[in-house]
Amino acid sequence: MRFERVFDVAPSVFERQIQSTYTELQDYYKLNCHDIDRQIFELFEKLSGMGVYAQQEGKGEISCLCISYLYSSLVTGTGEFCLSLYDDRVYFDDNPIYIFWSPVFLWRQFDKDVEEIICSFKKLGIRLKKYELDAVKIEYVEQFFKIGHKMFADYSKLIITTMKNSTLKTTKDFSVIYGGYLDTATEIWRGNV
User: How far, in Å, CA of 83 to CA of 67, rounded?
Assistant: First the structure.
């Protein structure tokens, strides 16, 4: 019964928090845009270079860039995304090219959000027990990863430009997808690189 009450209240708490978080992250980006842009450019430049090297060793054309959030990073506290280049077999590619990135600014915000969510529940007279807090974090991270989707979608032009500037060979219907690691994903971009 208590657990049900927590999750009856959670959606409204999460919605208020996500709106506030998105505004804070936009403000943070405005102040740090050059550093964040540089990090993303260097990250995708490195990934493209790894892809070119793999193609020199015999890997075929790349058909998909998959940006995956890692649920395990919630447990480890690393807040990592896995950025993978796949051939036409996507998840069945036996030799994917991947790199991990932990955007510190996002995960600092996530930790701050969790503290604010705990306070919101306290204001409603609900003191979360450890197992409830863990469940709330898992539910909230789903909402939080939607911010990651928006961020990478906003960066798709920079990502594609970086990949175009390399000699990476891609298929004509190359796509960029975002989702959970080896889980369902949504398409951010599709086209010819």
Answer: 5
- Name the stretches of the chain with pLDDT < 70: 1, 182
Parallel, antiparallel, or unpaired for β 170-180 and 81-86? unpaired
Instruction: Give per-residue pLDDT as tens, 54-75.
Output: 999 988 899 999 998 887 877 7
Closest to 183 measured CA to CA, from 66, 62, 98, 87: 66
How many angstroms separate the CA atoms of 4 and 84, rounded? 38
* CA–CA dist 90, 93 (Å, integer): 5
Q: What pTM did the predictor assign? A: 0.83
In the chain, where the domains are located: 2-191
Residues 6+ apart with CB under 8 A from 186: 149, 177, 178, 179
Residue of 63, 62, 33, 34 whose CA lies nearest to 50 = 62
3-state SS assignment for residue 186: strand
